Amino acid sequence: MESNRLFNITLASILFITFATAGTPGKSHGISYPKGWQNWSTIAVSHRTDNNTMRVILGNDIAIKAARSGKTNPWPDGTILAKVVWKETELENWPTAISPGDFVHAEFMFKDSKKYAKTYGWGWARWVGLEQKPFNKGTQVCTSCHIPVKNRDWVFTDPAKFPVLK
């Protein structure tokens, strides 16, 4: 009886651990998937005409505070920026509007000037598709694209201006 109880507890524990971690994507460039990013606040929106994509740039609390106060060059350590990318599409009922279509990927920049000193103070990560498959083709893919903005702490985005009511 006791051995059955112990077996059931062990089995339940294994199943819990298996299913609790099954939904978390693997690491990208050694960085764990940032849980809860879908609930972060918006820093800006951008549209790339070269590849017909729309992007929403989100930030964790540290990033939002820096963006709203204009303290983004450099961004403070602890900042996490998320760039969420969709292919653009037209809406059938609103043909003059561009709207998000197929989801492409979510990219992240993690600011830690000591930990990521070799990659310009940022950890670079990407998860691809709705399945959020880890992208692990090397951080040079990210950093080489960001060279034009190295004097802006490697960040393309200008935070959008939001109304401040007093």
Q: What features would you describe in this structure?
A:
This protein has 166 residues and is an alpha+beta fold. It has one domain: Chalcone isomerase (3-Layer(bba) Sandwich), CATH 3.50.70. 22% of the residues lie in helices and 33% in strands. The protein is built from three helices and six strands; from the N terminus they run αββαββββα. The protein has helices at residues 2-22, 61-69, 140-146; strands at residues 41-48, 53-59, 80-91, 94-111, 122-128, 133-134. Strands 1-2-3-4-5-6 form a six-stranded antiparallel sheet. A hairpin with a 4-residue loop joins strand 5 and strand 6. The protein is globular and about 50 Å long. Mean pLDDT is 89; it is low at 3-21. This is Cytochrome P460. It comes from Caldithrix abyssi. Residues 34-157 form the Cytochrome P460 domain.
